[in-house]
Amino acid sequence: METIEIKVNGETHTITADPNTPLLYVLRNELELNGPKFGCGLQQCGACMVLIGSQAQPSCMLPVSAVSGKDIRTLEGLVSKNGDLHKVQQAFIDEQAAQCGYCMNGMIMQGVSISEQEPEADERRIRERLQINICRCGTHCRILKAIKKSIAP
């Protein structure tokens, strides 16, 4: 067990954990942030996606020690201080892109990453970036539409 300092949603937290503990477990169990979900546990579904800087990354196998000193954002951290939703979150609502909602964390976090890193991304590029995210309900068309809407000028 080690003392590790992590910065999540703009707030610094000091935790005591095994350095190899997956970040997802720390976020959910220690910090009580429920945006990232446990899906496959193998970094293959995207349900556990968080932003490290502006890069979307699965957190289910990412050791907490690997993110010490880095800016981590979860779904909860996207909402502004005055309660306004992030433009990607609003686009998902506007386009009714959620069905069961299990994949939404990963889809939204990947959408935010796209909007920050590649605001000119076309549909082909958005599809490439979403390859890691799995939706079993079949709302991919609406998800694509929402992400395209949120990054449109």
CATH class of the largest domain: Alpha Beta
Q: Which fold name fills CATH's third level, the topology of the largest domain?
A: Ubiquitin-like (UB roll)
Shape from CA axes? globular
Percentage of residues in DSSP E strands? 15-25%
Count structural domains: 2
Strand order of the largest sheet: 2-1-5-3-4
Listing every helix as H and every strand as E from the N terminus to the C terminus, the arrangement reads: EEHEEEHHHH
Distance from N terminus to C terminus (CA atoms, Å) equals 48 Å
CA gyration radius, whole angstroms: 15 Å
Q: Architecture of the largest domain, CATH level 2?
A: Roll
* Number of discrete helical segments: 5
Kindly state the mean pLDDT as a whole number? Answer: 95
Structural class by helix and strand composition: alpha+beta
- The overall strand count is 5
The CATH H-level superfamily of the largest domain is Beta-grasp domain
Sheet bearing the most strands, described?
5 strands, mixed
What is the percent of helical residues?
Answer: 25-40%
Low-confidence stretches: none
Task: Summarize, please.
The protein is an alpha+beta fold and 153 residues long. It is built from five helices and five strands, in the order ββαβββαααα.
